[in-house]
Amino acid sequence: MKIRDIRATTVTVPLHAPLRHANGCHWGRFVRTIVEVEADNGLIGLGEMGGGGESAEAVFRAMKSYLTGHNPARIEEMRFLIANPTASLYNNRTQVLATLEFACLDLLGQAWGVPVCEILGGRLRDRVPFASYCFFRYPDSRTGAGEVRTVDQLVEHARYLKRHYGFTTHKLKAGVFHPDYELEAYRALASALPGDSLRFDPNAVWSTEQAIRFGQAIEGIRNDYLEDPCFGLNGLRRVREMVRIPLATNTVVVNFEQLAANALNTAVDVILLDTTFWGGIRPCVKAAGVCETFQLGVAVHSSGELGIQLASMLHLGAVIPNLSFAADAHYHHLTDDVISGGLMRYDGGAIKVPDGPGLGVTLDREKLREYNELYQRLGGYPYDQDPARPGWTPIVPNDRWADPLDDRPAPIPH
Ligand SMILES: [Mg+2]
After folding, report:
1. Cα 251 to ligand 1 centroid, rounded to whole Å
2. I need a labelling partner for 300 at 20 to 30 A (CA). Which of 132, 134, 274, 341 fits?
3. How far is the CA of 3 from the centre of ligand 1 (A)?
């Protein structure tokens, strides 16, 4: 089997409401580049990439000259072909490699008649549990509904997610408002959801001292972990000395060099593996093996996905023995998907690992066309800007918080 063509289509799929985060906002939609890698036997492997609200079509067009004629089974060689560790200093293609790895694994699974998880060592579980992913949200600019700003709105939203999807683990994406306000919100969530476990993620925007203050204040809560309370291994190491809660990261351990540094002088207890940040599903499986050796915890990270990337996360979650916690997904914030059958369904807070060959998902061509047209109409958006706070630049550590009393809607075109 040889690669014959690579096609990329940018889509934008609406969210139920704009999701606020420490560095900006998802402006009521995700922009994703859907990649089709066609082999000379007619099979098509699927990949998906984010890009901070921007299209990544151009980079995949450029990959055609590298990969036409390449055997998709030679994934390790592809790594050196397009993401050589020293050449990448000039053109970091880690996420491009990840997308093409998904597509090559999809091709191989289809050619061999097995799901991707069977190529990766075989499934250990048929369902992957997920956490509810609670965000502070602006109201939807079409309907005016969906705002999550006050503590009561947050609690009501988390209860809805639990009722509707069956989650028993809850994550609060924070770093938007002053930490004292977010502490009040997190405590309210914990008391509204007795027996469930929680995790908190301010996206590394606090000072080390603020992280220590917050961490100590939540020690009595049933925490899975405190995620990226400050930036950098050295700050996290200081927090870990002072706070009796496991720390997790998806920001400062995202490659094997950093994983080695963390094993030699531990700063973080739980490594959140992202199939895109690490360059594919296979590097995540390798990293999980290193974590198993050093007895570090592992969970599956979400960088905002449609169904193709979600499939990569499900196959990863299926095969790693040391999956210690529920996975994260933004998926339930989407209103639709571009895969056949529409959005994958949650059952009891979990999603079934696809059974079909390859990634086990196929494209709904009509949806691909519809959401490509929506992208053509709306264009990209700056993921690291807040539409309601023009000129705002969050610094690290941050002290430029949003005001929880400010109920102005965000001016987002739709
Ligand atoms: Mg995080």
Report:
1. 7
2. 341
3. 35
- CATH 3.30.390.10 assigned to 3-116+365-376: yes
> Ligand 1 (ion): which residues have CB within 5 A?
201, 227, 250
For the question of whether the overall pTM of this predicted structure is more than 0.90, the answer is yes
Condensed to tens digits (0 to 9), the pLDDT of residues 29-38 reads 999 999 999 9
CB atoms within 10 A of CB 191: 9
Known active-site residue 16: no
- 301 tagged catalytic: yes
**329 C-alpha to center of ligand 1: Å?**
11
Contact call for residues 154 and 348 (beta carbons, < 8 A): no
Percent of the chain beyond pLDDT 90? 98
Strand order in the sheet with 197-201: 24-26, 19-21, 132-137, 169-173, 197-201, 223-227, 247-249, 270-273, 297-300
**CA 4 / ligand 1 centre spacing (Å):** 37
